[in-house]
Amino acid sequence: MRRVFVALVVPAILLGACSDAGSETAPTPVVVDTDMGQDDMMALLYLLQRPDVSVEAITVSGTGLAHCVPGVEIALSLLDVAGAPEDVPVSCGPEQPLPGDYPYPGAFPTSWRIATDDAYGLDLPASAREPAEAPAPELLRTAIRDASAPVQLLTLGPLTNVALALRDDPDLVDDLAGVTIMGGAIDVPGNVIRNAVAEFNVWVDPIAAREVLGADVPVTLVALDATNDAPVTPFFAEALADHHVTPEAGTVHDLFEAQPFVLSGQYFFWDPLSAAIVVEPDLAKYEERAVTVLEGEKETQGQIVADPDGPTVRVAVAPDALAFEREFLNTLNGDRAVEDTRPDPVARIVVGDSGCAYEGPTDVPTDLVAVAVNNPTSKAWSVLLASIADGHTFEDVRALLADFGPQEQPPPWVGLASATQAAPGSNTLAAWRLEAGTYAVVCIHEADRTLQAVTEILAG
């Protein structure tokens, strides 16, 4: 975004009358608290491209993915990429979560943090901008207090900075229009390695999360319940590759190129969806929930649970993923050139606790096709599409898998045409690039490596 200045005063004599000339709507002031993961980078570039948004400040959560120095440097470079005003301040907060009675002081895996500090391999230009002198909690207070209108606060990492700002100035809520938080898991499994019920941003600093959710301000929670329905797909990557005409869109495209993992089926538009919901709330539906954040035991640290005595927050659910993708891609490009970012699914694979089922035609065209993969369970699954060489059949695959060991290599007559990882509670898309031939759909229960040959697919 190039910050919009709308206070244009036109002398009445030039209008030929004394009537009001009217004015444009002032941009919405937004402050972003981020841990500078790659999806955070996408979210920031999206907001910086919105002409109706004024990014007033960026604070880096030192308890999140990036360490402070590289995290601030990345944020400053992204401001340059977007041509943002020189006066957008950036600073970092403490690198330790708030002290409390929980057994595992939260931290993202070391390898994730190393990748983040390296900007995921992006060759971002070094910025001549200087970080703000004030630490992040103080910068949050100043930016929110000094804004020309009530601020929308968007948080994309652990909530340490925000909790400290509210502790120091509880009346800060009076200058907030709302807080949108990417974090938590309500009715779906979590994504934390050490337990099955928490989401990372909340698990890292559960006390901070509980305090911010309980602040006297409208809170919108964009939890995994919503983001699980917004996977990054090969179809979106192709649409982006075909249309990246601005520095902002080009940088997101470079992220996709540098990090193939985003197309693994395990990566979702966590932060971009949250950023879009701030300015386009109709992209999702919402439920009011009274909740609290658990702090104590290892197995439940960071879990958000129902609590009739807890604060009521607005939880985003059922996002319109296709509408979001169009909004995200077109805003990055500063236009409305792309209408479709994915094809309609030709079939659906539904995972259950006892296996998975294929719903749809078994004769499909040779093309790049989409297949919906729904995993409502609490376990991770993978869905493979295996090519079967001439002279062999689907029944041969079924017989092979009946006693196939986890360390065995498949025979040469079976090839891997596609692999899609279905995270717990997710709705994703498998991308099948089909040539003429015979295929087998195979589901793998990741916990015990159980393999199931589901159905035969004939292409061509």
Polypeptide structure, described:
Residues 1-23 have low confidence and may be disordered. The chain has helices at 12-15, 38-49, 68-81, 110-117, 136-146, 160-168, 200-204, 206-213, 224-227, 234-242, 247-258, 270-279, 321-333, 394-402, and strands spanning 28-34, 53-60, 90-92, 151-155, 176-182, 219-222, 285-293, 304-306, 312-317, 347-352, 355-359, 363-364, 368-375, 381-388, 414-422, 426-433, 437-445, 450-459. The chain has 2 domains: 12-333, Alpha-Beta Complex (Inosine-uridine Nucleoside N-ribohydrolase, Chain A); 347-459, Immunoglobulin-like (Sandwich). Strands 3-2-1-4-5-6-9-7-8 form a 9-stranded mixed β-sheet, with helices on both faces. The chain has a 5-stranded mixed β-sheet with strand order 12-18-17-14-15. Helix content is 28%, strand content 25%. It has 460 residues and is of the alpha/beta class. Helix 2 (38-49) packs parallel to helix 3.
